[in-house]
Prior knowledge:
Blueprint: E1 3-6, E2 13-18, E3 24-29, H1 32-48, H2 61-70, H3 77-95, H4 105-116, H5 121-140, H6 167-176, H7 182-189, H8 195-199, E4 206-207, E5 214-217, E6 220-222, E7 226-228, E8 237-240, H9 243-255, H10 276-290, H11 300-311, H12 316-323, H13 328-339, H14 341-354, H15 357-371
Antiparallel strand pairs: 1-2, 2-3, 4-5, 5-8, 6-7
Helix pairs in contact: 2-3, 2-5, 6-7, 12-13
Amino acid sequence: MGSIRRAPRSSRWEARYRDPYGAQRTATFDRKADAHVFLATVEADKQRGVWRDPALSRITFAAWADEYLNGAIHKQATTLAQDRQRLRKHLLPAFGSRALGSITPLDVRQFVQQLAQSHAPSTVRTIYGGLRTILAAAVAADLIAVTPCRGVRLPPKRPIEKRVLTVAELRRLGDAMSVESRPIVYLAAVGSLRWEEVAGLRVGRINFMSRTPTLEVAEVFTDVGGFALPKSGASRRVIQLPPFLVTMLAEHLARGASHGPDELLFVAPRGGPLRAANFHKRTWAPAVAKADLEGFTFHGLRHSTVGLMVEMGHHPLVIQRRLGHSSSQTTMDIYGHVLAALDDSVTEDFERLFSDSRGADVVQRGADVRSH
């Protein structure tokens, strides 16, 4: 059970005990009663197998967050870069110098409330998600017993209306691009490729010889992480290409000086992979302005993909696979507002099926029965 004694040359009290590993430990208190409570708590924690070294919880949030992110090998380079940016901008100013064990649920709730006064709900949720992950990892590492991210009420999500281009607008945007960059618009809008998938696409991943030509998404390129595998198994996929896009890609290759299978399909003006920031400044933004589509983003082409497939009546599971999502729930969460248009077409189809004379007779018979 340990022992309590007056600290040498002090008015304070020492609680002495052995940890579960047999090491002698000492904690100091102003009151003898507090030392008794502490020893009772230590003994109870040892009996339940939940005792933790108090010194571990004294590591600062900044030190632990850095250690956690350095070991987060499961995260992609771009995700890590975003996590570190949010850490520097939001989390470290609030918690950086604090010991992990000193952060309370009230601290976290007040932090979220302050964020909500100046940031959009989606931003608040993202920043809080980073904090929650770091502190949950501290629990898993036995640095703290429980996470202080408890009882937090987040601001409700606001639906964001994503812009969807019509076929005419997509054509106008494509025509506004240089001939070298025009296929990029259609790969994103028709092939449903993300920017990093376009930037990492190699010539050998296009199968021109198949009866139905295909494109394989097997590698991505980002400015931060360089070349890497797609972010999930579902993202690695094979997409069938329509003939017009096959012709466009073949003409693009015919204009190039080299088109070996390991060559990038699209390269920067001075060679090497396309960089997102440079492409946006030099190519994308001028073309968007020329096409009178001010504010439209490259990722908006994927939203337009969904809109076009919905308009053509494709099943959500088909849309999910083409987009490279790991689940249909992901597709619904991101594009639910577009997929909701399917409900309109279902209603119209039922109307066409049942709004004939037989359907009218059925309705009338039902009304006659109810009247009797």
